[in-house]
Write a structure and sequence with these properties.
The chain is of the alpha/beta class. It is about 25% helix and about 15% strand. Strands 4, 8, 9, 10, 12, 13, 14, 15 and 16 form a nine-stranded mixed beta sheet that branches. The protein has a three-stranded antiparallel beta sheet with strand order 5-7-6. Strand 6 and strand 7 form a beta hairpin. It is globular and about 75 Å long.
């Protein structure tokens, strides 16, 4: 008997695979490499999959969100208690919560009497108030280049100030040194066209635009249910042995079957969560689907709104509010959707650097130094703004007029790696740096 089961390596029409001789599974040792395909026939899945039992790992699932382009931390987490903020930003400054001359919807949302959230970040305020979201201000790396590419590369490679010298990304090093075993090809997922540098070198990381790209190609999809069921039965019979190839094949099929049952395309969020209809919102929606599916996910990486859209050199007040609101709506929907599952998830949103303290003539801000980090999850000791505030006075700034970095981003990530991801190899993950915990996690 012959069945149409997959595509050939060129992405052309499906090729015929003889399915009766079970002994041929050794020859098909690509472990479904000819059957599992990314959309548009990009490449085949060559890795094996071992889907762990639900909640087998005690480690948190890490969701990393990168705000590429240098998000303006001073307008996202507003230091309204520092008078120098308004002197430097007479036009761009977000009005103080106490400024009754301004419309209440335009004023910062007070957090602790000194800092406030940009009003478009309002969907995140309840999580801060409940103690599940924390913020870190005046944080970053010690790179002085003010170059997007250098600053991003340093952070994603887990370095401090000197480019080069490290192989692969910090998150890849974590995955390779984390305790326990997890061979799922969906252990780490980047919702992106390309693999982020933080995952570079990880053997079990997958970059894809949509979960629809990760599937088993069957005749006519699943429209002919009887034929599809027969095809799966045949594939199972090919991998019914006790050898390594059979084991890999069975576990790969198990992950694919889990995804089929999850049906990501028709996934229904819980708790009335409504994700924004944006690339970011759709990405988080798919991450939630994977987390609830218990198919071995440990890390997910997303970029917010594509490359450099936080790079607000001109007309910042026309650009930043929409960006911030999309970020807030997406994270808030994600947290509501996860509900109790949020207890085993840590969300980190960070940027490569902040913006210049003073606004420029184009009513924007130039590349600066210190930025902000958003932390949310069940293990986060929230309701606080962490970090030592260096001040915005003339004598407080770093030349040529930037907020100083007083919190190393590796201290924050190192604490999460150690306490939430249960990996005691933090010094190997961030070579040359001994993290000083700030107490942001339980």
């Amino acid at each position: 008997m012959n069945e149409w089961l997959g595509c050939d390596g060129s992405g052309n029409a499906p090729r015929e695979i003889e399915t009766v001789p079970v002994a041929r599974r050794a020859m098909l040792g690509g472990a479904l490499a000819s059957l599992v395909w990314w959309a548009k026939g990009k490449t085949a899945l060559a890795g094996v999959a071992v889907a762990p039992p639900p909640h087998q790992n005690e480690r948190d699932i890490l969701v990393m969100i990168f705000l590429r382009g240098g998000a303006d931390g001073l307008n996202l987490i507003v230091p309204h208690g520092d008078d120098a903020y308004y002197k430097n930003r007479p036009t761009l400054g977000v009005p103080s919560p106490r400024d009754k001359t301004k419309n209440s919807k335009d004023r910062a949302l007070d957090l602790n009497g000194f800092f406030g959230l940009h009003p478009t970040l309002a969907p995140l305020k309840p999580f801060y108030d409940k103690g599940t979201m924390a913020l870190v201000h005046a944080c970053g790396s010690f790179d002085q280049s003010r170059s997007h590419f250098e600053a991003m590369a340093l952070m994603e490679h887990g370095q401090g100030s000197t480019p080069g010298g490290q192989n692969g990304g910090w998150l890849a090093r974590h995955l390779s040194s984390a305790p326990g075993r997890n061979d799922s090809p969906l252990r780490a997922v980047a919702l992106s066209n390309i693999m982020p540098e933080s995952l570079r070198g990880a053997t079990q990381a997958t970059a894809l635009n949509s979960l629809d790209e990760f599937r088993l190609i069957l005749p006519d999809g699943d429209k002919d249910l009887q034929k599809a069921a027969r095809a799966r039965q045949i594939l199972s019979s090919l991998y019914d042995g006790s050898d390594a190839v059979s084991h890999a094949g069975r576990e790969t099929l198990a992950v694919l079957e889990s995804l089929r049952r999850l049906d990501p395309k028709n996934y229904k969020p819980s708790g009335g969560a409504q994700y924004p209809d944006s690339t970011f919102g759709r990405g988080l929606r798919q991450v939630a689907c994977l987390i609830k599916g218990d198919i071995g996910l440990e890390a997910a990486c997303l970029d917010h709104s594509g490359p450099f859209l936080w790079d607000t050199h001109v007309a910042q007040n026309n650009l930043l509010p929409a960006q911030a609101n999309d970020l807030a709506q997406g994270i808030a929907a994600f947290a509501r959707d996860l509900d109790s599952e949020l207890n085993r998830v840590t969300i980190v949103a960070m940027t490569e650097f902040g913006r210049r303290v003073a606004e420029n003539s184009g009513l924007g801000t130039d590349h600066g130094r210190a930025g902000v980090m958003f932390l949310l999850g069940g293990g986060i000791k929230g309701g606080q703004v962490y970090g030592r505030w260096p001040g915005l006075g003339k004598d407080d700034l770093e030349a040529p007029g930037d907020l100083r970095v007083t919190a190393d981003y590796r201290d924050v990530l190192g604490e999460i790696v150690a306490k939430r991801l249960k990996n005691d190899k933090a010094e190997a993950i961030f070579p040359g740096h001994k993290a000083r915990f700030m107490g942001v996690t339980a």
